[in-house]
Design a protein that fits this description.
single chain, 225 residues, alpha/beta, Purple Acid Phosphatase, chain A, domain 2, six-stranded mixed sheet, three-stranded antiparallel sheet, 11 strands, 24% strand
Length: 225
Amino acid sequence: MLAGLDALGVRRLICLGDLVGYGADPGRVVEIIGSRDAAIVAGNHDRAAAGLMDLEWFNPYARAAAEWTAGQLRADQSAYLGKLPVVAEEAGATLVHASPHDPEGWPYLMSPADGAMAFPAFATRLCFVGHSHVPAVWTLRVDGRLEFRRGVGATRLTPDARLVVNVGSVGQPRDGDPTAVYAVWDAELGEVEIRRAPYDVHEARRRIYRAGLPGILGDRLLAGR
């Protein structure tokens, strides 16, 4: 994903949270993303790894991963995650991991109705979210019409609309396709394109197994679930 962005000449990285959580290389990810010119917001797994969230919120597999991840991070890496904001703005867009209407309640935006709840909670015309690991776009027209589309592709921000864009997940997509999902945003053109990038899913699974993490976290990568 990063190689693809570099090849396009992307000037700044936006990360919508959960740098860590299910993967076998949390410290390396924090170092790589932290070394970039990036706008980053915290996800629930980042907060958990930094000791800022009650692990009872998680299912048993996610809880085990959070506990393991916390033990893998250096103190400075945990502190870095703990200082990430929950909501931010970047070039006229709102950034939040879950939803702007309840950013620390961590609701999932999955349906048209879920997205409709988000629009009154942010003032910008564009909002980027993650959390569900499923790429999707909600478009609210000035006449009140709500349009909803899942999947990859390009969307133009027109004067008569506001957008909520779920950019999917690089590390663990959950839309039935194991290839990584990310988005390229051209702020000048007002265009967002959700893209896919292949990676070595089998090696990622092997690393999860070797780390002693719950096997389901590796197995689900193969199915993109």
